């Protein structure tokens, strides 16, 4: 309980984010194509001296938002004391983010969707209006994000809503999307390594993100 209280207090702190990047993988496959893409982006970040942290949501014990609205009062999720509580401080401290997800049934994975839903705690709402007006506590801080979606098929239509499902929420939270990477023909583990153009683009997006926040 003490550890959780410390995490809550840390998340509530209002401080300028630092020049680091938090990379979030929505894949349940550790070391698969999604992680490979993220590691390539991280290599790009390292080339311009930007530090990073890589979180694979498949290894985090957490659940989706339950809609209790308690976070509107507490400024962080206090209803669910789980692995997401450990990620909140890193979100606050990182000026850059990478979101990458495989495509599951024309959308992002359940892990990535649950992660994005749990970012609801960063919104502020005006209860005196209907529909309620809102703002984000993460906005106007120069935050940047790169988004990637990985699928087996070869057309962007086959990705369905995956890219938009990450892009629109991050923009609403106040992040500038500085790059989007759709990856096709990648199903078998490690298949993306055979696509040198994609590996190069992932590296270049890491460099771009690092330069944007550095």
CATH topology: Rossmann fold
What number of structural domains do the residues give?
1
Radius of gyration: 17 Å
Give unreliable regions as ranges: none
Query: What percentage of the residues does DSSP assign to strands (E)?
Result: 15-25%
Order of helices and strands: HEHEHHEHEEEHEH
Work out the helicity level.
25-40%
How would you characterize the largest beta sheet? 5 strands, parallel
Mean pLDDT figure? 93
User: What's the tally of helices?
Assistant: 7
The total of beta strands comes to: 7
Structural class: alpha/beta
Distance between the termini: 36 Å
- The CATH architecture designation is 3-Layer(aba) Sandwich
Instruction: Write out the CATH superfamily name.
Output: Flavodoxin domain
| Widest sheet: strand ordering | 2-1-3-6-7
Shape: globular
CATH class: Alpha Beta
Task: Characterize the structure shown.
This protein has a 5-stranded parallel β-sheet with strand order 2-1-3-6-7, sandwiched between helices. Helix 6 links the parallel strand 6 and strand 7 (about 175-185). It has one domain (about 1-214): Rossmann fold (3-Layer(aba) Sandwich), CATH 3.40.50. It has helices at about 1-10, 35-45, 70-75, 85-95, 110-115, 160-170, 195-214; strands at about 20-25, 50-55, 95-100, 125, 135, 145-150, 175-185. It is globular, with a radius of gyration of 17 Å. Helix content is about 35%, strand content about 20%. It has about 210 residues and is an alpha/beta fold. The chain contains 7 helices and 7 strands. The termini are far apart.
